[in-house]
Amino acid sequence: MSQSNDSSNPEEKEHDLESIFQQKRILRSQVRKTLKFMDPSLRSHEDNAIQKIVLEAPWFKSSQRLCAYISCSALREVDTSKLLSQILQIPNADGDTKTRKKLYVPRVEDKNSHMRMFHISSIDDLIANSMNILEPAPVDADGNEREDVMQANEPVDLFLLPGLAFDRSGRRLGRGGGYYDTFLKKYQELAKERNWRQPLFVALSYSLQIMDEGIISATPKDMPVDALVSPSGVIPISAAALDRMQF
């Protein structure tokens, strides 16, 4: 093998990464522009269709502990309000809490790709940050620390993830901060250390966000998703998704 094809060459690696980052920047700009001009009625229709598919899915119903993003209309993310409402529903009148799901939601800690996920029991547990994005405070109204998913005693079953673009091989294009990729990698490592079953990483996607294979470039740090949910249905990708989603 010639030196020019040696992937261990640091200069070539750096050049390849910069090329990938440039491709991502271009694609992000294109997708943002497409989302900006998406017809509002179509957006609403797809939001409802995606959430309906998730709510009716056996793999969602059977998940007891979940991590999910709080959708932001300004970022033009697939709406999760109905999903969160269902997850946070009040237990049965007889006091049975076994069927109530446990929800963790993200909080960005700094500009260095550091994100945490805290347990909330109500939408009222969220406050708007400086970018007007809803997040949980690290402590509740009584001053008690919220449970951090990384310190929880039980594993998460399902992650519901946002993104700018996806393909059918599981590649996900984020917004460039690296928050989700960093967090998901750490959680996978935690689950492996504790001998837990790995959670499913499921991304919610508008139809126009699903790209042809080869369009989304990826680095070794990019975390793939197990499945996509679009208005047309569920697209299982990984072996785990094919098994647990019963396709």
Automatic annotation (TrEMBL):
Binding site for ATP: K24, R25, I26, L27, R28, R172, L173, G174, R175, G176, G177, G178, Y179, Y180
Gene3D superfamilies per UniProt: NagB/RpiA/CoA transferase-like
Obligatory cofactor(s): Mg(2+)
Lineage top rank: taxon: Eukaryota
UniProt-annotated binding residues for substrate: I70, E77
Residue ranges of the TM segments: none
GO biological process: folic acid-containing compound biosynthetic process; tetrahydrofolate interconversion
GO cellular component: mitochondrion
Keywords: ATP-binding, Magnesium, Metal-binding, Nucleotide-binding
GO molecular function terms listed in the Swiss-Prot or TrEMBL record: 5-formyltetrahydrofolate cyclo-ligase activity; ATP binding; metal ion binding
Catalytic activity: (6S)-5-formyl-5,6,7,8-tetrahydrofolate + ATP = (6R)-5,10-methenyltetrahydrofolate + ADP + phosphate
PANTHER family (UniProt xref): 5-FORMYLTETRAHYDROFOLATE CYCLO-LIGASE, ATPASE INHIBITOR/5-FORMYLTETRAHYDROFOLATE CYCLO-LIGASE
UniProt protein name: 5-formyltetrahydrofolate cyclo-ligase
Native source species: Citrus clementina
